[in-house]
Amino acid sequence: MTSAFPAIPDAPIAERRQTTTNVHGVTLTDDYAWLRADNWQEAMREPELLPDDIKAYLVAENTYYDRAMADTEVLQSDLIAEMRGRIKEDDSSVPRKNGPYAYQWRYTEGAEHPALVRTPRDGGEATILLDVNAEAEIEDYFQFSDVEVSPDHTMLVWSADTNGSEFYNLRLRDLATGDDRAYQIADVGSVAWVDNKTLIYAKVDENHRPTKVFRHSLGADPADDTLIYEEKDPRYGLGVGRSRSGDFVAIYTGMNDENEVWIIPTATPDAAPQVIEPRAPGIQYSIEEQGDHFLIRTNADGAVDFKIMRAPITAPARANWVDVVAHEAGRMIVSMSAYKDWMIWVERSNALPRICYLAKGQPLSDMQAIAFDEEAYALGADPSPEYDTADFRFSYSSPTTPGQVYDYDLATGARELRKTTEIPSGHDPADYVTRRIMAPSHDGAEVPVTILHHKSTALDGTAPCLLYGYGSYGVSMPASFSANRLSLVNRGFVYAIAHIRGGEEKGRAWYEDAKFGKKPNTFHDFIAAGQKLIADSYTLKGRIVIQGGSAGGLLVGAVLNMRPDLLAGAIADVPFVDVLNTILDDTLPLTPGEWSQWGNPIESKQAFDDIAGYSPYDNVTAQDYPAMLVTAGVSDPRVTYWEPAKWVAKLRATKTDTNILMLRTNMTSGHFGKSGRFAMLEDAARSYAFALKAVGMA
To answer: Burial, 393: exposed, middle or buried (Cβ in 10 Å; 0-12, 13-18, 19+)?
Structure first.
């Protein structure tokens, strides 16, 4: 296999230091295990502590990348300028009324980060509460997270990560003075106000698992905070949140496919948490308060695609749950919200969403729905923070239509367009075409594929294609608008998203059919999408560039091993490719919670064999591979840097082609790359420049 992007001389060759382990009577040999630093937890927080030999290898790979991509520097600059030209620099969100104020995020021209501002509810002078740009200017990396205003609107808690490790420090700001308290609370995963003087928060441990919930009184030493809940099961993680009415704080604890909920009445902040329904194998549920009852979204009673039930506040156990919206196979209830007099939920069938709502006490036959007519589109629900209201906000976009924000009156059905995303450099949706096609997979399953192309692109099989996929954890890929991808589409690319098994685009069964030993269905579906695009003349064999990140990088790695002949190139962003070794290691941050997805290869020989059969690192073979760009982040707690590093080292020592293989490691950030709305464009420009070069267009 030859490529438009051949390798350049003097690629780094990682030293082989063979290690062996024996699992289930099978000897595993790993030449590159040394790339995992013994002090990886320290290096995640302080990347400069990475051992010298590992650092030297990663830096050598970065230098090789820089040389290989040097001739695309002008192209990358052009791409960044194009993408930045589509960003309205002095932008703001639609104000959101909450109590006596209206809150919104505002960007000023040139600012990487926004500011949180508020005005009196019915208009008046704006006050800046948090200028994130000012907080971030002294940091190489800055990502803020939780921003919660106290019930009386006098205090603000907010958190930030300054190295990409996702260890967030919580800060408390007095909104009368604009000053933060002198202390911070370290390693906070989530936070909620109990009352105006009390917080509860989930704390992340040294393994990056949120395992403890504490109660904090404003002004007290965090070292004296009270532990109110501890999760002992390493598969479970914690999160906290306040109900819309303000009557309860909830502690959610669970893993991907199982959970339980504990509640604390805010009127009695010192009360011990009380469980709604104890955890049970495979049972998931979430709650919303509505007066004298909880609404419960759950998969109980065999409701594979979820249903909505109701239970009394005074007796919320499962024995008292009663159906409100019954289960319907193939119709996935994605999320649910409750106001004092309204219930709203998002459901999805055949990869298309709609928003449904029903007045309290009314029969289901009175349900109303919000939907659109395009072949493929995305909807987002954004309920009001207020409880006694009929105002509901949602967003809409499609691959051709920039995002729109609507306010909707549930009582009257009146819809008001509040904002359309402005593309300063210009955008005409009529210049683009969106299509939804179905690709038959290896077992007959029909895989939805969303397609975007310029109307002038010839569909004669000559166009290059970027095919994107994810396919894990039940995460569905929305058919939404992206201004960035227009830079490829305007250059003649067909952009396609494969809604493969492992997501929930076609209901829960679509997800369940790609778990455990069925995981290869994800990869077959993606290959089928590529073959269908070729068969329908959207592209040509050898003209496809595939892209996926994290678990989507697993997808990319597996497909590279299975059908490299279809491809011109592959972009694997922070790819989860060392699957077997990672899922065998229960000391890693996410591993115990992952067993519900992949199986537990420590205990089960079948799970071991299943994972060994597709793990990209373990299935690299002496064959031709297309051009490849692989990324990593030293501070990444989700996919540790050594997974992509080991994979690239093994590929370079094994593959038989002469195509480029590059590893680019961000030495100062983690899973999500650079922070800031303009800085992030650099990562997109690198990917697109690679894709263009891989098909001979750069």
So the answer is: middle
AA identity, residue 444: G
Which of these, 531, 343, 326, lies nearest to 442 by C-alpha position? 531
Q: What is the pLDDT of residues 319-341, one digit of tens each?
A: 999 999 999 999 999 999 999 99
Identify the DSSP state of 543: -
Spatial CB neighbours of 604, under 8 Å, sequence gap ≥ 6 = none
Q: Exactly one of 159, 671, 675, 687 is catalytic; which is it?
A: 671
Parallel, antiparallel or unpaired: strands 274-275 and 179-180? unpaired
Quote the tokens at residue 420.
């359309």
431 a catalytic residue: no
Per-residue pLDDT reduced to its tens digit, 370-406: 978 888 999 999 999 999 999 999 999 999 999 999 9
**Strand, coil or helix: 684:** helix
Q: Token pair of 568, please?
A: 């011109």
pTM of the entire predicted model: 0.93
153 is catalytic: no
Catalytic one among 395, 482, 550, 635? 550
Cβ atoms of 421 and 499 closer than 8 Å: no
Structural domains in the chain, CATH included, are 52-84+426-578+615-694 (3.40.50.1820), 90-328 (2.130.10.120)
The residue whose two tokens read 């999760």 is 231
252-298 confidence digits (pLDDT tens)? 999 989 999 999 999 999 999 999 999 999 999 999 999 999 999 99
Q: Is 208 a catalytic residue?
A: no
The C-alpha atoms of residue 22 and residue 31 are separated, in whole angstroms, by 15
**Position of tokens 């790979």?**
61
Q: Identify whether the C-beta of residue 448 lies closer than 8 Å to the C-beta of residue 499.
A: yes
Of 636, 669, 675, 687, the catalytic one is 636
